[in-house]
Amino acid sequence: MSTSPARYSRSIDWVTVLIYLLMVGVGWLNVYAASYSPDAPANPLSSLGFQELMAFNWFKQILWIGTAVVLIVVLLVIDSKAYDTFAFVLYGGMILLLIVTPFIARPIAGSRSWLELGPVRLQPAEFAKFITALAVSRYMAGINLRQQNFRDQLVLAGLTLLPPLLIIAANETGQALVFGAFLLAYFREGMSPLILLILAAAGAILILALLVPKLWLVGAFTLILAIAFGFNSKLWRHHLPLSLSVWAVVIGMVFGVDFFFNNVLQAHQRKRIEILINPSADPLGVGWNVTQSKIAIGSGGFAGKGFLQGTQTKFDFVPEQSTDFIFCTVGEEWGWAGTMVTIILFMTLLGRIIYVAERQKSVFGRTYGYCVASIIFFHFCVNIGMTIGLAPVVGIPLPFFSYGGSSLWSFTTLLFILLAIDAYRKQDLERY
């Protein structure tokens, strides 16, 4: 039985929609500020032609926002069961597109990850995130991750790792890192905490291997293991082979970091890690972006310099200020107060997404909801982290704030598929 539009509209989570609209609106204001020029006409919409307006990011972002509204309507009209039914079909098409992209895309900023359709440029890696979220949610709806079935875990790992591997092949490492966020959703569905612990420990060892002399690190770990054996004799009898295997793996990781760093990573990637470890190593080269970003944010003080008054923005000290470094504009023009409002907006959105995910009756809906929260949380943390020097610069946009059609469309689709799934859930509850 069909449901009236009025009844369906009541089923939509309008709180989340309101937060989305607020974030997109505030994001546009900051894109406008980042691309504003005092020499521009006072009323460019009436004094400039369409082609002239297309030179401004703020105008193009208006067009992207308008098309995003149309996209929202389409996403909410489609029966939510279609997202479950066609998840694997979309995944297969996305994999083919990712395979083809490096061969047909022209190089832009060192990567072949952008497709050009006339005047429009789209990045398939952005859309791969929500399609992968649909596919893994569809697969997890048919398994029980708590049973620790090795075959199921292997398939799930394949579904998760294939897209980022293809994205790395297009030389877009930053977007590939986002797929690690799916682990948070898997943990919610029953994945062993031991896996997260092992991955966290491995990450800590790799970071320490870059910061601490290798022999010191090996000596410290060996000493800890020896002390553990000294205080617990059962380790000798029951866990000696396993402990020695772990020791060997750790030693291999410590000394393997140099090979990975020098032979696998590209030169610009090595530089970014070096700058993260030692910000003063190349302040006028690779470290320029982060240095100017921190100056811009710090110069805003408590209340900021005021809308359109940012000097770092006006004189283009921070490259990519409309996209990857949009948070600098927030900090410079709106100050500490503005950055806190931005952070609160993101925390509110993430909290609402988790609330919506938890009230789903299906594993598919709940898992997808946690995938949405995990992806947005990763982007939020890494983007802000790299603008203040706590994370390497990897080209991660700030959701709903950064300029760009691919970014806005992908995050809009990611979020409103969840709202469509939730709306139909509430619709079914009202019916019965």
Automatic annotation (TrEMBL):
It is a multi-pass membrane protein. Keywords: Cell membrane, Cell shape, Cell wall biogenesis/degradation, Glycosyltransferase, Membrane, Peptidoglycan synthesis, Transferase, Transmembrane, Transmembrane helix. It is found in: Membrane. The chain crosses the membrane at residues 12-35, 55-78, 85-105, 165-187, 194-212, 218-235, 242-261, 334-355, 367-394, 400-421. It comes from the Bacteria. GO terms for molecular function: glycosyltransferase activity; lipid-linked peptidoglycan transporter activity. This is Cell wall polymerase. The gene is rodA.
